């Protein structure tokens, strides 16, 4: 993206709506551009960037030529290869393992409101091609050229999650761009993720701008959902499974559906609307199930729905003992492998869950098995399902597979952006 010059004015909307006191507006005074300081990579450590990735790890930086202690978290820097070729402009955090993240392939980028407005406009144009209503993930980090930033749009409400010091340092410019471009009723800073701790940032959730509507209701797959951004998980909703949920609804008519790790009913309620005979939602969170009950009432399917507060492992064990069987089982757990070193323990948890779920699946039933753990590959989940089917002597075949929806685009140079995998399994008696 070409370098932009900060305009000596602010959008008019900023004069009529109150900005949260923690959000400082960009200066209206003329700004004199200064070249960004430089960091040099060690020899041959520019390969990832040349292939299109945006990350620089701390051990890839030549600290003799560019001592890290001279930088503050969030500073803009020019990244140069060992031979002095400019790789682009990045923000840096000398205290983090992912030490720098590229914002542009060009030098001396100015990370002001104009920069954010251009990136946000590009992201918005894509989503408006894909969706006819304003309910989607507006920004998906690296895939939208804004590493360290996630924004979910709930019509006039924006839920913003900042995970890096670089975006944190420039959030006033981000907010100015969001307000000018989208005129939101409210912007929520949903900064309660553990990723912020890795960057030395505090954790908080707050209404940073405007007033949050009550209730806040969104639409997805022909259903309406009341969501709780301030107290809910992540940004308040999970748009990523939208397409897979629609497929479940398409096959749910007259079926007995079990929705495990149901959260607020995003899988189960569309299935009930589509004609499922009954839907059982199981989750360990009392508040999530309370909201799921409200959503069932909102969609007038409460008579078909059952809500069980339970540990999913324990629920499945009891269902097996009681010979309970379900026609469709949705197994969509939270990330069970958050770090690479947790792989062995997490893999075993996924294996046990799928094994238990298959034991309470009716003959000719369908298991929808998903994982949002980046460290569990599609091949890993494929093998778990194969071995689980063979272990209980069932014939398991894949009838469909899925991943994250198109508002979570995958950057082919950044495998970390491809995290969600889902298999639809038809399971019958052994051959």
What would you note in describing this structure?
With 431 residues, the protein is of the alpha/beta class. It has three domains: 12-22 and 111-210, Transcription Regulator spoIIAA; 38-104, PUA domain (Archaeosine Trna-guanine Transglycosylase, Chain: A, domain 4, Roll), CATH 2.30.130; 217-429, 3-Layer(aba) Sandwich (Rossmann fold). The chain has helices spanning 47-50, 113-130, 165-169, 171-182, 195-198, 242-250, 268-273, 286-298, 312-321, 343-359, 378-391, and strands at residues 38-40, 55-57, 75-80, 86-92, 98-104, 135-140, 149-154, 157-162, 186-191, 204-210, 217-220, 223-226, 256-260, 278-283, 305-309, 326-331, 361-371, 394-402, 421-429. The termini are far apart. The strands form four sheets. The chain has a seven-stranded mixed β-sheet, with helices on both faces. Strands 1-3-4-5-2 form a five-stranded mixed β-sheet. A five-stranded mixed β-sheet has the order 6-7-8-9-10. The chain has eleven helices and 19 strands.
């Amino acid at each position: 993206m070409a370098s932009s010059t900060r305009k000596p004015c602010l959008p008019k909307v900023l004069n009529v709506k109150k900005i949260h006191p923690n959000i400082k507006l960009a200066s209206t005074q003329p700004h004199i551009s200064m070249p960004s300081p430089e960091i040099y990579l060690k020899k041959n450590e520019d390969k990832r960037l040349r292939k299109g990735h945006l990350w620089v790890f701390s051990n890839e930086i030549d600290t003799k030529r560019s001592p890290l202690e001279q930088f503050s978290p969030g500073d803009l820097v020019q990244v140069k290869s060992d031979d002095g070729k400019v790789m682009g402009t990045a923000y840096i955090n000398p205290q983090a393992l992912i030490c720098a993240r590229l914002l542009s392939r060009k030098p001396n980028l100015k990370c002001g409101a104009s920069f954010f407005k251009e990136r946000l406009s590009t992201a918005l144009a894509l989503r408006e091609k894909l969706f006819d209503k304003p309910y989607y993930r507006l920004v998906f980090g690296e895939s939208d050229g804004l590493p360290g930033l996630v924004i979910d749009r709930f019509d006039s409400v924006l839920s913003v999650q900042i995970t890096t010091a670089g975006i944190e340092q420039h959030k006033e410019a981000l907010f100015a761009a969001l307000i000018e471009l989208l005129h939101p009723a409210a912007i929520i800073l949903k900064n309660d993720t553990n990723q912020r701790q890795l960057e030395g940032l505090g954790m908080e959730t707050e209404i940073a701008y405007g007033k949050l509507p009550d209730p806040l209701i969104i639409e997805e797959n022909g259903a309406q959902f009341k969501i709780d951004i301030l107290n809910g998980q992540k940004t308040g909703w999970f748009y990523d499974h939208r397409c897979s949920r629609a497929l479940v609804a398409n096959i749910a008519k007259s079926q007995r559906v079990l929705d495990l790790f149901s959260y607020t009913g995003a899988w189960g309620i569309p299935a009930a609307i589509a004609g499922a005979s009954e839907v059982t939602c199981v989750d360990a969170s009392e508040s999530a199930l309370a909201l799921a009950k409200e959503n069932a009432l909102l969609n007038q399917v409460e008579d078909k729905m059952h809500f069980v507060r339970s540990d999913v492992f324990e629920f499945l064990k009891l269902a097996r003992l009681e010979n309970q069987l379900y026609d469709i089982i949705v197994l969509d757990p939270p990330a069970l492998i958050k770090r690479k070193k947790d792989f062995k323990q997490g893999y075993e948890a996924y294996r046990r869950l799928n094994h238990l779920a298959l034991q309470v699946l009716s003959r000719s039933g369908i298991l929808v098995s998903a994982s949002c753990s980046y460290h569990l590959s599609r091949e890993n989940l494929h093998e778990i399902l194969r071995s689980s089917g063979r272990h209980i002597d069932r014939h398991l075949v894949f009838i469909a597979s899925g991943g994250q929806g198109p508002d979570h685009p995958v950057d082919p140079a950044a495998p970390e952006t491809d995290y969600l995998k889902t298999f639809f399994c038809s399971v019958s008696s052994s051959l």
